């Protein structure tokens, strides 16, 4: 099966800084992959390469089997950044309007929304558990609720994969757990493949299926349970500083 995302031996430099070295990684249909790494380990650079915003100095990036520079079907990819929750948050838009704006990816900015736009907005909001907030101003929601709305906006174009760049920044521990449960639900019940980038090892919870440890290069890529078996010293070596792991035995990925 063609991987959704594939990086082959990718190198990236910013002037003298070697941000990524010989990075190879695949994301397959159905994966919920978390890429974890400390500050400055190259996570954002990796995301920019996948989004086609940066070009590798060496190596290749493929989306759905095509070189990223030739990939045009943007609706296949939903992207939510850590800054989404501050984006336009003072703007007097309702949750409905924010989610509906995600349809522009398919209709184009200056086209009319489809007749069933309202149904599509409601369905997207139901999938992230935010249907009760449809008429609220976006600015009146908490950071975690806003992130769910931005995920609904990404989902409305019916992407095959969701790319999430540190989506839980600023969200408290309790809401973070329910946020991850919501992502697991999207992955297991709505067939959404997820690539999540985080600097927080705690994010490696029972929610995800796979994990990759990045610190300029990929030190580990495998099942989340395999990472659990590794000694803390190994993780600390990759991270370059002590780590605190909150691992959950068993799982609710059913
Ligand atoms: N525009 C830039 N110019 C020069 N160096 C950069 C630039 N952007 C990033 N870097 C450097 O490249 C390395 C990787 O940065 P990157 O932002 O990808 O890391 P990150 O893992 O996303 O970090 P964080 O978790 O702090 O957001 C760092 O050493 C950083 O200082």
Automatic annotation (TrEMBL):
What keywords are assigned to this protein? Answer: ATP-binding, Nucleotide-binding, Transport
The protein's matches in SMART domains, at most eight in alphabetical order, are given as: AAA
Look up keyword Nucleotide-binding and say if it applies: yes
**Start and end of every ABC transporter domain?**
5-247
InterPro entries the UniProt entry points to: AAA+_ATPase, ABC_transporter-like_ATP-bd, ABC_transporter-like_CS, Metal_Ion_Import_ABC, P-loop_NTPase
Q: Which Pfam families match?
A: ABC_tran
Q: Name one GO molecular function term.
A: ATP binding
Note whether ATP-binding occurs among the keywords: yes
Please give the superkingdom of this protein's source.
Bacteria
Q: Which family does it belong to?
A: Belongs to the ABC transporter superfamily.
Q: From the Swiss-Prot or TrEMBL record, give the protein name.
A: Metal ABC transporter ATP-binding protein
Q: Name the source organism.
A: Chryseomicrobium palamuruense
């Amino acid at each position: 099966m063609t991987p959704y995302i594939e990086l082959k031996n990718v190198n990236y430099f910013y002037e003298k800084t070697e941000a990524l070295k010989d990075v190879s990684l695949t994301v397959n249909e159905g994966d919920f992959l978390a890429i974890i790494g400390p500050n400055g380990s190259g996570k954002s650079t990796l995301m920019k390469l996948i989004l086609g915003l940066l070009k590798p100095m060496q190596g290749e990036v493929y989306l759905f089997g095509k070189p990223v520079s030739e990939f045009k079907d943007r609706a296949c990819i939903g992207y939510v950044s850590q800054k989404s929750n501050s984006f336009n948050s003072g703007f007097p838009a309702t949750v409905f309007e924010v989610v509906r704006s995600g349809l522009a990816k398919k209709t184009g900015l200056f086209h009319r929304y489809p007749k069933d736009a309202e149904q599509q907005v409601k369905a997207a909001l139901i999938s992230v558990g935010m249907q009760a907030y449809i008429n609220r101003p976006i600015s009146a929601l908490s950071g975690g609720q806003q992130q769910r709305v931005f995920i609904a906006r990404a989902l409305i174009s019916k992407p095959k994969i969701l790319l999430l760049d540190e989506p839980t920044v600023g969200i408290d521990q309790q809401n973070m757990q329910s946020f991850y449960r919501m992502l697991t639900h999207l992955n297991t019940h709505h067939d959404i493949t997820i690539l999540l980038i985080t600097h927080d090892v705690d994010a490696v919870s029972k929610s995800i299926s796979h994990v990759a440890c990045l610190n300029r290069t990929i030190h580990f890529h495998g099942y989340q349970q395999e990472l659990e078996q590794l000694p803390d010293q190994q993780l600390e070596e990759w991270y370059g500083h002590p780590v605190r792991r909150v691992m959950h035995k068993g799982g609710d990925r059913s």
